[in-house]
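Exercise 7. Given the encoded structure of a 286-residue chain, write a plausible sequence.
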């Protein structure tokens, strides 16, 4: 999980049609509120997932899930590939206060954050698994401050789910330097809740394998340039006296790995790299 930055609001979300839909939702709520019939409240949410919205979110998140950093695809092209889905950070449908694995699953109010269904700041790009785990769960540090309708102020809330567009995950989440396992910082309720709610530890095995691979190549690349050149000259002399094709391929692969390791140091912490959050935290420890 890494800190993200939102790009320009897609044109489709500022269209007359979308603005009218939002106003219609608010009017619908107020009408049923006056009639004391909020239990009958229903909304139809269409139009927030236009192509320009999906495209901008993919660019902002470098094609990765904003929560677990899995690489996303437009289509499920193969087994294990994850298709990107547009998620409402604050759920547009009826929300649930407590973590689903906690003691309570209290539903709050007749609706979710319906007035934010088309709000650019409330949209993120997530993998199918994270989106399915999150559902309408949206725990707050102080549930009594929850915004229950369009007249309330969301800024008074303190979500326990980390929004990487608003908060730097590094303030709440760290990784084990030996295994790469994701863990919450001590005393971070936000880190603990986010990991538990989204089941981010489901990828611990993949993180461990990725970290082991990175460590392997970086160790190989630790040889300095002068030593590399000396090694090349020594190998050339060996090959001159013993022109063995197998030896030649082995040595070529060795130098490729050395070069790959040096490049890897630069690549692993880029926004577009998988598990960039983990590698940024561990880069000085490997």
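Solution.
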């Amino acid at each position: 999980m890494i800190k993200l930055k939102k790009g320009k609001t897609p044109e489709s979300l500022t269209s007359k049609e979308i603005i009218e839909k939002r106003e219609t939702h608010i009017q619908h709520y107020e009408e049923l509120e006056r009639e004391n019939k909020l239990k009958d409240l229903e909304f139809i949410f269409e139009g927030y997932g236009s192509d320009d919205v999906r495209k901008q979110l993919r660019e902002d998140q470098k094609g990765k899930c904003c929560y677990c950093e899995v690489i996303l695809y437009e289509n499920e092209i193969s087994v294990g590939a994850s298709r990107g889905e547009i998620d409402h950070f604050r759920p547009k449908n009826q929300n649930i206060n407590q973590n689903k694995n906690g003691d309570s699953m209290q539903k709050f109010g007749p609706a979710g954050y319906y007035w934010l269904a088309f709000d650019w700041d409330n949209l993120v790009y997530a993998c199918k698994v994270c989106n399915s785990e999150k559902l309408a769960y949206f725990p707050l540090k102080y549930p009594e401050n929850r915004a229950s309708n369009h007249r309330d102020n969301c800024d008074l809330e303190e979500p326990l789910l980390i929004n990487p567009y608003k908060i730097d995950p590094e303030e709440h989440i760290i990784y084990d330097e030996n295994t790469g396992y994701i863990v919450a910082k001590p005393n971070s309720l936000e880190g603990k809740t986010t990991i538990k709610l989204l089941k981010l530890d489901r990828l611990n095995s993949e993180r461990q394998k990725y970290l082991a691979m990175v460590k392997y190549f970086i160790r190989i690349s630790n040889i300095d340039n002068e030593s590399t050149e000396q090694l090349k000259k020594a190998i050339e002399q060996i090959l001159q006296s013993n022109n063995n094709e197998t030896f030649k391929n082995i040595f070529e692969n060795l130098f490729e790995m050395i070069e790959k390791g040096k490049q890897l140091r630069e690549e692993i912490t880029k926004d577009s790299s998988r598990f960039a959050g983990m590698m940024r935290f561990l880069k000085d420890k490997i």
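Remark. The chain has two domains: 11-165, 206-282. Students should compare their own answers with the one above.
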